[in-house]
UniProtKB/TrEMBL annotation:
Secretion signal span: none
CDD domains hit by this protein: Ere-like
Protein name per the record: Erythromycin esterase family protein
Gene3D superfamilies noted in UniProt: Biosynthetic Protein domain, EreA-like (biosynthetic domain), EreA-like, domain 2
Pfam families, A to Z: Erythro_esteras (PF05139)
Organism: Peribacillus glennii
Length: 421
């Protein structure tokens, strides 16, 4: 099986020598409206660099105007304001990236994103058309930050919904911004705030016309209310049901993404930056056996096949930014050579250079075998990665294309040491 797979890789792979070679991938993307760009880790420089260069080409050549990332909505909105020129006081992207102050900060507060953000700002400044390119975080974790943003919006307009928001927020105050404390209280003792946040989300959804008072305010308050409601569900579920909480999170990311696309209009085109485990279709992995879904699967189900294009990323060896456990200081860790017989091992053995593969009706069957595919999270122990870091996958069904970086390097965080918030 591996020999046939290796032969197919040799026949169908295309070298990736420089950014000009990405033009082939842009052509393959064609008229897709949703382009999902993965990563095999949250701490690899080349993944960020290639995604940035590819995004630039899609923005300039194909008219994409939305970057949606696996990040918090409130912090991303500050970067969005800088990129679009709403924020006239902040001088540099590095300064605004300090808003990403919740662990793991390195995912977005890094040199690679700072450079890309400056490019986006320059592009928007020189672009005479509309809409300007925006940057949005669609993850679910920012429960307290999003609630604060809802209250801020309502205070600014002296909204009749302010008392309802304050009541919902007061329900969370005893937990002192501690997600685990809230999760235990809600799941074990049924002392949660679901009724309060559900009423708030419904009320804001019904009163959307009241909140159009500044740039993107109506989108901002709606998504922050959505985060509050879905984050409450996520934390209430995570103690006893990992599968259900995972699905809540990924469904939220799709829901938030659809809100952004609706705001931009029916012809909007979006680029999504998330981990392979979120963008690569879950039905092509063993996730499906556990009842798990993900963003890539749901977007394929919600849209026409030709409208969604998914690109996976991987590496054979190198270095990465990660941590030993949740909430502790980041480290530059060594990524060992890929496990023998894995997807990354096959790609390396067919030539130790960077390459791209494209899957279509003519060749998908050649890559239809199930093979281990490496996934590195923000918590990572290289010594034990063979025990749980390889996801059995049908690569040609999980992705439409794959970018392989043979030897990769750790990204450059703006903060060398993490502070737990």
């Amino acid at each position: 099986m591996l020999k046939k797979l290796a032969d197919s890789v040799r026949e169908h792979s295309v070298p990736l020598r420089d950014n000009d070679d990405l033009d082939v991938l842009v052509d393959k993307i064609g008229d897709a409206r949703l382009v999902l760009l993965g990563e095999a880790s949250h701490g690899t420089s080349e993944f960020y660099q290639v995604r940035a260069e590819l995004s630039k080409k899609l923005i300039q050549d194909k008219g994409f105007s939305i970057i949606a990332v696996e990040g918090d909505w409130p912090a991303s909105q500050k970067l969005n304001g800088y990129i679009k020129g709403y924020d006239t006081e902040t001088k540099t992207a590095k300064e605004v990236l300090k808003s990403f102050n919740r662990w793991p900060t390195w995912m977005w507060a890094n040199e690679e994103i700072a450079g890309f953000a400056e490019w986006l700002k320059d592009h928007n400044r020189s672009y005479s058309g509309t809409p300007k390119v925006g940057f949005y975080g669609i993850d679910v974790y920012s429960l307290w930050e999003s609630m604060e943003e809802v209250v801020r919006h309502l205070e600014k307009t002296n909204s009749p919904d302010l008392s309802l928001a304050r009541k919902a927020f007061s329900c969370f105050e005893p937990f002192n911004r501690n997600h685990e404390k809230y999760a235990i209280s809600s799941a074990v003792y049924s002392e949660g705030c679901v009724e309060e946040v559900t009423k708030l989300l419904q009320r804001i959804s019904e009163s959307r016309d009241l909140y159009q008072y500044e740039e993107e305010s109506i989108l901002d308050i709606k998504v922050n209310a959505l985060v509050t409601a879905n984050a409450e569900r996520y934390y209430s579920t995570m103690i006893f049901n990992d599968e259900k909480s995972w699905n809540i999170r990924d469904l939220h990311m799709v829901e938030a993404l659809n809100e952004v696309m609706d705001f931009y209009g029916s012809d909007s085109k979006v680029i999504v930056w998330e981990h392979n485990t979120h963008v690569g279709d879950a039905r092509a992995t063993d996730m499906a056996n556990q009842g798990l879904i993900n963003v890539g699967q749901v977007l394929r189900e919600q849209n026409r096949p030709e409208d969604v294009y998914i690109v996976g990323f991987g590496t054979h060896s190198g270095t990465v930014i990660a941590a030993d456990e949740w909430g502790v200081n980041l480290e530059e860790k060594t990524v060992p050579q890929a496990k023998l017989g894995s997807w990354e091992d096959v790609l390396h053995r067919t030539g130790d250079f960077d390459k791209m593969l494209f899957f279509d009706q003519g060749n998908r069957h050649l890559f239809s075998s199930i093979i281990g595919h490496r996934a590195i999270g923000v918590v990572y122990n290289p010594e034990y990665e063979h025990l749980g870091n390889y996801v059995p996958s049908v690569i040609s069904e999980r992705y439409d294309a794959f970018v392989f970086i043979d030897k990769s390097h750790a990204l450059t965080p703006l903060n060398l040491y993490e502070t737990v918030f």
